[in-house]
């Protein structure tokens, strides 16, 4: 069974989703940080770059957001291009009314610099990149995701019953306003028409508020933002599998109870208040599980392990047997570890919020049947346990699985850590001998170029001081002899390894 645990303090809100007391998802929100994702803005187009089919839009943030041609809804694009006459330019005798494709669309004919435009943030700013923007709007509810300007009805692949899929599609087709669409979420399965239509009514009223505010808002103004983190978690994760929703703040508990009473009154009795000690996250072992999720190595219950390494281009996951030796044949042992690793990889991808290109190096198996079994179970695990879309290729002869997973916001590592000021994110530092040799080389270069003589006081890091005085003092004597100077080493904590400071001017 699942639990939703909400730790709310004056400085931060944290929401943990657990299954059988094992952490599955963790979300953070600092009360001083503005949440941009899913927010709507009255943006101002500042620059259009036809070469890369992208417009930069000022939404009042430090960096302008970027809007790519693929994120402009089709109806807007066709309407704007028709007004400019570009669609007529594509006509000929054989194709009098062409159906424009992405290759035909030209962003400079759709948008104009200086104009105001309604945009939604689809992805938070990352590093030096501004927010990713879209005019393909989405408004998530408990059972539906409304698409107010995309006239298409989609449905979750996890709803497998053909009759249920058709029932839900027919219900939406009958009640959606013309020109609008929706995605039917997994939680809709088995729900009555009344509950689903209530969700639709709420989303339509929200869209009406957004369109009204756009007309009245000032340029660069935020028009609408999603509900806060704790309510988002309830909306997205509360289902019949949830056993309890536990809050450690009484005001938050009251607010969530009222919210659940509105959207899912049959679930309201699950909302509870927890008063420590110990703290809520300590009681359910969440703090230690968060720390484990920051480590590269994850130990499997069988004794095997997986190692997760993330680079700029992709994430690589390596599966190892560890101390597990099995009881039967080698092939059975390897299969058991690979199957356990597949389940754990699914959990780690969600927990660490890893997206993009992912390569998993499972342990090699000689049996093609076992490779197919591993592929089926891994794909099923992703489908049942992970809400983000992923594409998985079959296991290669080398035991490699290539997959992609939709990116969404920052990874857990990006949210909770900064680059090390010593290694600058490389994950290692230079050896002590190498740092010491670097100092000696720099000193020699100074002596050669400055042509100095006399007394020189050289401040270095204590570890470098100890290494040079114990192992490389002959090198100091060599420099003194060849450059006719007297060198005095000084141990100084403030000096970084590999650097030095001259205590007197040349």
What does this structure look like?
The protein has 15 helices and 24 strands. By secondary structure, it is an alpha+beta fold. The strands form five sheets. Strands 4, 5, 6, 7, 8 and 13 form a six-stranded antiparallel β-sheet that branches. α10 runs parallel beside α11 and α13 packs across α14. It is globular, with a radius of gyration of 30 Å.
Give the secondary structure arrangement, pairings included.
Layout (H helix, E strand, L loop, with lengths): L1 E7 L3 E8 L2 E9 L9 E10 L4 E5 L6 E4 L5 H11 L1 H4 L17 H4 L5 E8 L8 E3 L4 E2 L3 E4 L5 E3 L6 H14 L5 E4 L8 H24 L5 E3 L4 H9 L4 E6 L2 H14 L7 E3 L6 H4 L2 H7 L4 E3 L5 E6 L3 E7 L9 H23 L3 E6 L6 H18 L4 E3 L7 E6 L6 H5 L15 H19 L3 E7 L1 H10 L1 H11 L1 E7 L8 E3 L4
Parallel strand pairs: 1-14, 11-12, 14-15, 18-19, 22-23
Antiparallel strand pairs: 1-2, 2-3, 4-5, 4-7, 4-13, 5-6, 7-8, 9-10, 10-12, 16-17, 17-18, 19-21, 20-21, 22-24
Helix pairs in contact: 6-7, 10-11, 13-14, 13-15, 14-15
Give the terminus-to-terminus CA distance: 72 Å
Number of DSSP-assigned strands: 24
Counting H and I runs of at least 4 residues, what is the number of helices? 15
> What characterizes the major β-sheet?
6 strands, antiparallel
Percent range for β-strand residues: 25-35%
Q: What's the pLDDT, averaged over the residues?
A: 87
| Coarse structural class | alpha+beta
Helix content: 25-40%
Outline the low-pLDDT stretches.
87-100
Radius of gyration: 30 Å
Shape: globular
